[in-house]
Amino acid sequence: MAQSPSKSLVMSDAASLRLRLGGWLGQGLLFLVTSLSTFAVFFIFYFIFKDAVPFFKLEGTREFFTSTRWYPSGHPPEFGALPIMVGTGLVTLGAVVVAVPLGIAAAVCLSDLLPFRMRQVVKPVIEILAAIPSVAYGFFALVVFATVLQNHGGSVLSIGAWLVLGPVFFLLVMVAGDLLLDRLKHMLPKPRLAGAVIFPALGILAFLVLRQIAARLAGIEISSGTNALNVSIILGIMALPTVVSVSEDALQAAGRELREGSYALGATRAETLVKAVIPASISGILAAVILGVMRAIGETMVVWMASGNAARIPEPWYNVLQPVRTLTATIAGDMGEADHVTGSARFHVLFAMAACLLAFSFAMNLASELIVKRSRKKLGK
Amino acid sequence: MNDDITLRRFDQFAEHNDSAQEAETHIEAREFSLFYGNFEAVRKVSLQVPKRMVTAMIGPSGCGKSTLLRSINRMNDLIPSTHASGQMIFDGHNIYGRNIDVVTLRSRVGMVFQKPNVFPKSIFDNVAYGPRLQGVKNRQQLGEIVETSLRQAAIWDEVKDRLNTNALGMSGGQQQRLCIARALAIKPEILLMDEPTSALDPKATAKIEDLIGELREAYTIIIVTHNMQQAARVSDLTAFMYEGVLVEFGNTKQLFTNPDNPQTENYITGRFG
Amino acid sequence: MRLGTRKLLDKAFSGLGLMAIALMAMALVLILTPIIWRGSKAYLFKGTIEHRRVMLEQFGRGDAKAFNRETRQAAEARAPVYRMLEEFEAEMKAMDRTVRRNYKDAYGEVEEALHVLLGPRPGKRTPVLLRQQYGQTRWDRTMVKLHEVLYATEWDYSTPGAMGVQIEKPRVDQFRGTRLEPLFDYLPAHIDEMMRPRTTFYWRFITDTSKDSHIFGGIWPEVLGTIYLTLGAMLFAVPMGVIAAVYLCEYAKEGRIISFLRICISTLAGVPSIVFGLFGLAFFLNTIHVSDSKSVLAGSLTLSLLVLPTIIRSSEEAILAVPRSYKEAAFGLGAGRWRTVLTVILPAALPGILTGIVISMGRAAGETAPIIFTAAVSVGMPLKLWETMNQPTPALPWNIYNLCTEHEAVDEIRHVQYGMVLTLVALVLLLNLAAITMRARIAKKLRG
């Protein structure tokens, strides 16, 4: 094999310049495409705020943030968005109450309790929950869940109470009984017998209390199935996958050494998790909660379809059985009517709401980034 | 006792090492240094690598031998914040000078890496990768190049019937020989080998070493190795490096049996490393 | 604490975790079951002769000869009904005016309910509205409508202050002793022969256009609109996202600018979807006027921004997973940076990138909020490809919302709503399934 005459190593100045320029140009182009998302973010902020500012110029900020009267098509129109913000807050809070305990418990289970094979079964469940389109959740909430709530509200509530409070009461009985035994150990002649009395007694007490609560709940009639409770539960389910996967990552990141250290000191698995692993990964879990909140607050279809869309503050404010209205649903619902009168306060008020949403989610996003970054530094990674 | 072991270890030397001193220089480092940030990984090394011979570089890990090897085709450019000083002369030019065409340089200086890094493509496409870069499109011409390269790498008989299967399905030793074939397909003048057998079993290692023996007829080979027996078996010349400095460079047989420098002696007799 | 209690607490703790998982799985099952069960009934149901009539007359489908034979048999079964009506009408004519008035309204209701059940009465003028030209096409709806013929609903307001209670009264009581009385026995006894139900697999539900705003027919315009919007979004987002990922992984030097870029990408990922919709309206439609009104183009552009961060992140992950040694090998063979990316890195990262793209497709297909103001309309025909540049389209997510909240006959077309939801969910889950299998394959490949 004859070697072909080899090319010269040195290029002419012109060729070198061309190569360098080409490289520069190419990289510049790539950078431009990449910064498209930056432009998008700026454009979104600019265009939302551009159309939001006229509203505040026309109507001022006080009414928007403090008044409880929302009559955008009245004469004169009134733009008190407070009930809508309260509604948003209420359903978000509800979603957090549903998603956070469940999500963290599931994440702990996934990362530390389940064997590998079971994990392979559970992961797709989470993925499917995350993949179902929001409009399908909304449809379920409106057509199925709202009907059930309206017709059998009481029984649904009491079943829910059994499901949620049952395990909690069980744990409480265990802890309380144990503490009591510890206290009384020295006074009683036969501690073993005392245990056999105390635990069942507390158990029966708890059961009775629980039954009382459930019976009370079963008596409630829900006048409208499209209410804050319905939406909160569905939003909670929708936020679950986010909370589970992010906090599972955080728990995994805590590392095996930490767990082994705790086990070596004689801690049980639960103690290891509660006292060592969860505190170590608390910032990641916090980030998970924030992301879950963002998911719930930004969701449109479910709240639009199933929240009842009543722009007034429930009485008392935490009454989740009353219909509420949220920012996203107001934007989605009112734009159709406001569209024809572009330029009016009615059009711009929706952008003002979008601006609030945008500002809030931006702040939350930054906060979660900061938390994650700081925790990474702390863990030394 | 140490001397005893040394003698037994190095009883099998490469055969072609007598004419080493008279050969023409192919690549030359002059006061060459390479920095990672502020750290000087290679310190003012000067050496002349002769044409069509096997030059081995040995030394403890972290001594800069791999860095020096990778400086010869400027692979260190990939790592951010590296810079070089001094000269590395190839074909009459300092390859760290102005207007150097790095792509041409790398197509004239082939390289084989520590772990076999075949692409997840067919065997044929792996070997044809370099020629295609150089603009060879004709299928028949490509086929010829692929066959020649595979024959040169002594792997043709094993793969000729499955050129279109994925190269990842081969054994580690075969993959490494495929990497050699792939490097040969661009018709380089120099072949750099960075610990080419460290990931292989003894049998595959022996095959690669035989191959090196055959390739020295046509190519200048520079091989970095951890394994001193290997250096002794395959190389004509050996360079011993320590902490970035070229401590000793000379005829392999002489360096192993009668080193000038006490550090070299310590290393090859196993007192440190 | 005592060791025994600690152990018990440990068990209880595990139980709590397992319960959380079980609740999650239960939620999934509870949500999917009605959607799958009732959604499948849009495709597989007991169709009546009226369904076959719609198919033949509106879609030109079916065996005309067999249908005519069947129609004759059904007409024979229906003949007594109409005879009874005629006899009663004659009887009414002969009545005293004051007595007649008692019957007139009640009879009108019966006649109307029968029309809804069986379709227009033979010999009468054909109604203008398509939905009034046919009787009930589905057996389940037939039973509901039969019930409405047999029973009148009234409201009981006897308890003052409380909400009215709905009560049902048999209509037969209103017609005791008249020629119409036997009708109420005849109908339930012979409904089978009159409607001739037969198990029908209507797979064309997905490819038929809708007639009379979803009263009859299928959901093709919505399906096609969703496909257009999804593919359109990918058309913009995939090149942008992959190029950005390549830049971030292979070219960018970490520094202020890059970390700013990354913050922007994560901010974009956190923007609520309804805000994307407003932005699409304010920017693509009202500012740069990509089209005069809502259009598939504007919707696709909006959706592409929404999925961009997902595509960038997954592509980045895929590229970073490509072993460094591939890059070194390519460089060592004299490939330039760009060549290396194109010939080695991207092909090796392709399965991972595809996985991300497929998941984003599912996301884009299911999003509603961004297309409300930019692309979606309630009623429309399937679009030709070039019409997507300037015309709005129906789309599955939007029309699910629309049909179950704003349609004038919400209860009549539950099956269509469920069918649409099932179709959308199946589409999205299939895409995700594809992604999951792809990922499993990659994992296997990387392991062995």
Provide a compact summary of the structure.
The complex is a heterotrimer of chains A (381), B (273) and C (448). Chain B has 273 residues and is α/β, with parallel strands linked by helices.
Largest sheet of chain C: 2 strands, antiparallel
CATH architecture descriptor name of chain B: 3-Layer(aba) Sandwich
CATH secondary-structure class of chain B: Alpha Beta
Helical run tally of chain C: 15
Distance between the termini of chain C: 49 Å
Overall, the morphology of chain C is elongated
State the end-to-end CA separation of chain B: 18 Å
Number of helices of chain B: 11
What descriptors fit this protein?
heterotrimer; A: 381 residues; mainly alpha; two-stranded antiparallel ribbon; 14 helices; flat; B: 273 residues; alpha/beta; Rossmann fold; 25% strand; disordered N terminus
Can you tell me about this structure?
Chain A is mainly α. Chain A is built from 14 helices and two strands. Chain A has helices at residues 13-34, 36-59, 62-66, 82-113, 116-131, 134-184, 191-218, 228-253, 256-264, 269-280, 282-298, 301-306, 327-338, 345-379; strands spanning 70-71, 78-79. In chain A, strands 1-2 form a two-stranded antiparallel ribbon. In chain A, a hairpin with a 6-residue loop joins strand 1 (70-71) and strand 2 (78-79). The model of chain A has no long low-confidence stretch (mean pLDDT 86). Chain B has a single domain (4-268), classed as Rossmann fold (3-Layer(aba) Sandwich), CATH 3.40.50.300. In chain B, the strands form two sheets. Chain B has a six-stranded mixed beta sheet, sandwiched between helices. Chain B has a four-stranded antiparallel beta sheet with strand order 2-1-4-5, with helices on one face. Helices cover 36% and strands 25% of the residues of chain B. Chain B is of the alpha/beta class and 273 residues long. The radius of gyration of chain B is 19 Å and the shape is globular. In chain C, the strands form three sheets. A two-stranded antiparallel sheet of chain C has the order 1-4. In chain C, strand 5 (210-211) and strand 6 (216-217) form a beta hairpin. In chain C, helix 5 runs antiparallel to helix 6 and helix 7 runs antiparallel to helix 12. Chain C is elongated. Chain C starts with a helix and ends with a helix. The chains are: A mainly alpha (381), B alpha/beta (273), C mainly alpha (448). The B-C interface holds B 73, 75, 78, 80, 103-107, 110-111, 113, 115, 117-121, 129-130, 133-134, 179, 182-183, 186 and C 253, 323, 325-336, 339, 343-344, 347-348.
